Please model this.
Amino acid sequence: MNYEELGNVAVKAREVEGKYEHTIKVCIAAGCLSSHADEVRVGIEKEVKNRGLEQSCKVKGVGCMGLCAAGPLVADKNNEKMFQGVTAADAAAIVDAVVDSKPAPEAIKLDSNLDFFKGQQKIVLENCGEIDPEKIEDYIAHSGYEALFKCLTEMKPAQVIEQVTKSGIRGRGGAGFPTGLKWTAVSKATGAHKYVICNADEGDPGAFMDRSVLESDPHRVLEGMAIAAYAVGADRGFIYCRAEYPLAVKRLRIAIKQAEQHGLLGQNIGDTKFDFKVEVRLGAGAFVCGEETALIASVEGGRGTPRPRPPFPANSGLWGEPTLINNVETLANIAPIVLKGGDWYASFGTEKSKGTKVFALAGRVKNTGLIEVPMGISLRDIVYKLGGGIPEGRQFKAVQTGGPSGGCVPAQFLDISVDYDSLASVGAIIGSGGMIVMDETSCMVDVAQFFMDFCMSESCGKCVPCRVGTKQMLGILRRIVNGEGTEEELNKLTELAQMVKTTSLCGLGQTTPNPILTTLRYFMDEYKAHIDKKECPAGVCMKKLETAEVGA
Amino acid sequence: MQLFPNKPAPPSDDKRWKIVDGTMNRHGREQYALIEILHTVQETFGFLTDEALRYVAVSLRVPFSKVYGVATFYHFFTMKPPGEHTCVVCTGTACYVKGAAKLIDAVKEEVGIAPSETTKDGKVSLLTARCIGACGLAPAAVFDGDVAGKQTGEKVKGRLREYSQPIAVAAGVGA
Model:
């Protein structure tokens, strides 16, 4: 396929779409599907057919609309009318509302002017909830693969990297390394082959940004990978995706097949000399595989254990060749950066954290779901404006960001600017984008124990500080939670946390103590209450006494 | 006789080995495809048997120790036969904050098993998952592959009661 043919596909797809006066979009991402969105879709299709409206009203499955808690979600073409908690029985009412502009029943009406929707700035998610993730034509109709053609026909690899560098985008997987620098390093490295790996091993429990992007707009990620491959000189790519995300894997495989059929992946892409082949590799449930050297070991078919860096994967990665590893969200940002320019992207966000970030907002907050906001937004806006505040009139206690590697941001920092550096200054991180809101019913010592339990069982066991340190820290936390902790142990915990942080081999061990360190810093009174008064202020811990198990 | 034949014969004439062979052939019996192949074995047989691991090792010409090492490293792989029905409780952070522990307690109350155990009659297995990515619907559980959001102890018990009814079609598990 060449540029002209791509244009023809786009024109044709838009023509087909334009024939319909009305469109009813049904979310078919995993969240809504688990609330039986597929039945809703069939129900609405039947209703449209029964009324003989097939020629004027299109029923379309689309990706994630964001407000997962209110699913299944249905919307009209421009998201002016939205419906929540829909069942197949509501099909007639929805068709009435969309086609005949009748008022919808209150029970399923969703206000499309909610701050949750209006407060967002969508770049990565612009196609999510708009296009059918299983149809490449729909993606092409929304300027899909245009950026790739722009690179192949108008730009030299160095110019592509220049735009990415200019955009100021930093890795969205958690570490926040400048993407432009990474690309430059791989492009300068020499090797018989170069590889591009998309890190879709979203291991942070409580985060689902990457899953939603892969399920809702898989071609965007493929296009980003192809552009990256062109820029750094790679000819083969892998997407390392969690096996726990079967729908994402399925849609990725469909997307790869379609792209190959259209000559957008494979050999001589766009009738140029550029070849790029992409394969999906399944993870198998190991958190440490999000670390890049462990991920490489896993793609090679082995145990996912990290190795010391340097050499960095940019010089010696997959099978010892230069390898570019980027996160799903980073790659999903590439196409718009190329199309609209690095300067445009850099106009969003703060001085040192450019662009937007997708967050998975969950926990004790009214509107749980997926949001994309400009960097630098205040935490208060995220929790109270977009999130709609804490339900049942409870008190906000903290936001946990960055999962097991991150920290808790307490109430006194609610007005903090959400960007890489500000969050780091209070001991937390942006991480991959998980944001768990906690209220007074969460005990912070118990939360620290939860994460330590996670890290202990996810530690690969290669280096001693992480393997042994996590086990010892968990032991102390368990004693504190059970009301058996002592003042002395608290000091030991602090000491151990610092030691594991500074001496572990990879990012997992180095960040494992963060939940402990931040809770010790901001919620010392809760630790003290467990130790001195043998009570849990949130009323969580002591009840667990009978069921607590010290295992593994 | 070759010590490492190019295509060793499957351990038995069970037709399901053909599916495993298919995956191995698709990857050209390359060693790097080990994890992919183990996924196929688990999907096909329900769990990883010693026999299967040995067959994969010989087919890919890798030491059995490596195959065993990989199979035991990753949480997704199991070497225990699952029950007829599986209940996976998500223990990701969002589910944890919203009471995943109560769901696990409910399973224990109803059928008396703890995580990674199977009931004596082989009807139900309880597993936990690190995060299934349904955080917007926390707390979530997966019943026989079907994700169910916003669960309560009572809802979980209800599903388990359905499982204890005699069922016409039983999911086959290879021995």
Remarks:
- Chain A touches chain B through 55 residues (CB under 8 Å).
- Chain A has four domains: 19-112, 144-346, 356-439, 444-546.
